Amino acid sequence: MSFMISGFIDEISKDFEDQLKVAHELGMHQVCLRSIGKLNICDVPLNEIKTMVLPLLQDYQLEVACLGTPFGKVFIDDQQAILDQKKKYSQVKDIAKLLGCSYIRVFSYYLPSGTSPDYWREAVLENLREMVQEFSREGITVLHENEKDIYGDSSLHCLDLLNTIDNRYFRAIFDFANFVQCQEDPLEAYELLKPYIEDFHIKDAYQKGGKNVLCGTGAGKIDQIIKRALMEKKDYFATLEPHLVLFDILSQLERKSVTEILGDTGFKTGKDGFVAQYNAFSSIVEKAFLEGSLQ
């Protein structure tokens, strides 16, 4: 089995070509696109994808592993916001087709404060089913991320969604830091969800305070989980999502203030943090391979 290392390159710098240059220099073959400039990937005009994004990707010999959409990252009782996102499904399918990408990242909706997840379960499932059906018709797999404060922020709720929708085009992203920040044991969450996992988001966090830190230095148990994943004889994506320095759209991605999210990592630039995350994760994978071969 193997890990194809990708990453959200908008964490590297503001300039798209600079992002691609760093990814290429690291020896990466795939990247994840979440934003171009200050626009979410859903809002980038198709003409810009054709005339700027795709040619630059080709210049740097990079393919697109996944589109980091914000679908499902709205409140489940906000019907207008949900409708507005559904109107963008067609655009995203066109972008994915143009870029030769067969995965999108999604969420399972924020819940109104003070309400029970059980109350909203059917509404969440209804919207996710529709989303999966819409994209699966185009051969696009919908990857659900265990984001904080959404229905599927716990491993049990993730499993509920995956089991109930029961579609081969609906699979799991395993975000180490998010499980830590939701007070879950990442190792237990992995064992519960491993049949469905196709993508690991490489992000770590301290247990106390929940601030993001360099992978392998927090409570995400990344080394233990990667070693177990290697034994599964499967191929995975590993998507670098460092969250180690302030970058343009960070405040749009997190509900907490930036000071609550970022640990004192010592990295001054997005490039520094991204490269350090790449090297740290590569070392974890190499060590896991070595230990596995010696057993």
Descriptive labels:
single chain; alpha/beta; 12 helices
Order of SSEs? EHEEEHEHHEHEHEHHEEEHEHHH
Average pLDDT reading: 92
How would a crystallographer describe the biggest sheet? 8 strands, parallel
Strand line-up in the sheet with most strands: 1-12-9-8-7-6-5-2
Low-confidence stretches: none
Could you please describe the fold and organization of this structure?
- There is one protein chain.
- The protein has 295 residues and is an alpha/beta fold.
- The chain is built from 12 helices and 12 strands.
- The strands form 3 sheets. Strands 1-12-9-8-7-6-5-2 form an 8-stranded parallel β-sheet. A two-stranded antiparallel ribbon has the order 3-4.
- A hairpin with a 6-residue loop joins strand 10 and strand 11.
- The radius of gyration is 18 Å and the shape is globular.
- The mean pLDDT is 92.
